[in-house]
Amino acid sequence: MIKIKVKGVEYNAQMTMGTMLQFKRLTGHEAAQIDSTSIEDSITLLYCMVKSWCKREDKEFGLSLEDFADGLTPEDFSAAVSSLGETPTTKKKH
Question: Quick check: pTM over 0.70?
Answer without folding.
Answer: yes
